[in-house]
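Worked example 3 (structure in, sequence out).
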């Protein structure tokens, strides 16, 4: 899951980077829908955007932080079509795990990583099987506890945060030139 999460994140970054232009924080006329989405998201961080506009040396760092926060909230992150493509590209290793890496399971677990601490919400956890038995290519059946797996993955992901995933308060006081 960490590998799939990271690859999906990097592919989404590469796809949206040219459109979003994260180092430009002023409104762009006739912007593409992805850029407009980024601008609307950035409006929620007006303190940082104003700092970037007043202090050009801070604009790049703030823009990149906002871009990565925007990506983390992006709904396409766990979309079945893009996850299916990733699993197909993995080829033999994914096939060897059989239903363990089933499309529906992987999408739900990636969605759980995107939720962050909200992964503990019963509304989300109740959508996952508490105990599931799946076929694997070699070895017959494998028991998977998706709810526990989602919590463990979220915990592991949470303690290995990148700087772009840190909360706004950290960026305001530590990570951005003032």
């Amino acid at each position: 899951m960490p590998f799939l999460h990271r690859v999906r994140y990097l592919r989404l970054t590469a796809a949206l980077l040219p459109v979003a232009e994260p180092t430009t924080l002023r409104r762009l006329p006739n912007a593409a829908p992805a850029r407009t989405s980024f601008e609307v998201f950035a409006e929620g961080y007006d303190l940082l955007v104003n700092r970037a506009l007043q202090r050009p040396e801070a604009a790049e760092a703030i823009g990149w932080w906002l871009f990565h926060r925007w990506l983390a909230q992006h709904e396409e992150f766990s979309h079945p079509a893009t996850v299916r493509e990733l699993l197909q590209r993995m080829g033999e290793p994914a096939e060897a795990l059989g239903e363990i890496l089933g499309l529906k399971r992987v999408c739900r677990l990636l969605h759980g990583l995107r939720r962050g601490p909200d992964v503990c919400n019963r509304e989300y956890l109740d959508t996952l099987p508490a105990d599931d038995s799946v076929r694997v290519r070699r070895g017959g059946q494998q028991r998977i506890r998706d709810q526990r797996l989602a919590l463990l993955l979220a915990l592991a992901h949470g303690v290995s945060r990148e700087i772009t995933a840190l909360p706004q308060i950290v960026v305001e006081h530590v990570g951005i030139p003032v």
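Notes: The mean pLDDT is 84. Residues 1-178 form one domain.
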